[in-house]
Amino acid sequence: MRPRTNILFFFLIIPLLLSGCFGLGEKEEMDPPKTVTYEEDLGLDENGGQLEEGESDQANTVQTELYLIDKNGYVVPKTFSLPSTESVAKQALAYLVEGGPITNLLPDDFRAVLPEGTDFTIDIQDGVATIDFSNEFKEYAPEDELKIVQSVTWTITQFDTVDAVKLQINGNELTEMPVNGTPIQSMLTRKNGINFQEEPVVDVTNTRPVTVYYVAQTDSDYYYVPVTKRISNKREDTAKAIIEELIKGPDMHSELFSLLMPDVQLLEDPTINGGVVTVNFNENILGSYDQRLITKQVLETIVLSLTEQEGIESVSVQVNGDTNLVTQEGEPLTEPVSRPKIVNASSF
After folding, report:
1. What integer pLDDT is reported at residue 37 of this predicted model?
2. Domain named GerMN: which ranges (predicted)?
3. How many whole angstroms separate alpha carbon 84 and alpha carbon 61?
């Protein structure tokens, strides 16, 4: 274990004792929508203005993930309560433009993705969102080229009506990006990956991508970062491979951390039944101060990573074959846990 991982774990574990976790029901959902919006937490209205005492915009807002660039250059989802609108995809894209409506809502150490002044149209047909940008789209820094592709793709495919994205400039379809000439597919999906892990791959043609969620930090916040890694096509146990990548952690030169310690082990191969994947860990997955408790952050990295896979909708967690586990609120964790509705809305 690297020394900085020990340090991070020490600082994480203190606030974990004070934080809440899940609302239980027939099928558990992690972090259901809060009774206050992100802007209200900041004391802002939907346009970034100051809310009067007691004022609330939550009835007229919609929770939306915007994939922004953090201080380390990672493309990261941050959840905002944006004004309710019939065109949520168009609104989300507008909030990715530098100098646009996102300006007063940007968290510290994050920045918008699209060049200032970028205009666009978006047309969604049969699950494909065709985005036609204006010439201002070309005015980005070369190092942001792939990040823009990832941000736009992952922001727009969060919506149920969108499976893939096509990019155009002035009606002309892009086969490569305009600044550095990075080739892009005509149909962009989440399978194209995000925040690629830089590690040697002997045979790219015989590997496939999987996305796992690690943790990054600012001076006052921790947040989840999706990272795409490659595993061998010979592996049929994708869920097991994902857990192993979480335990292995990110590249040692990365600014990211894994919250699964090296002594965590799967006791058997995960099984998938009816959209529920069951994972059975040894006791090292538990919080040391309570031998039945799994911390919120550890559980969320597992659930976020596994539910990126098609066919997995929720996760059932066992320890030594036992489901007698609890959340940080002391409530039983006996039902499968769904993907959180809100990701990186505020600090841990």
Report:
1. 31
2. 89-178, 239-328
3. 5
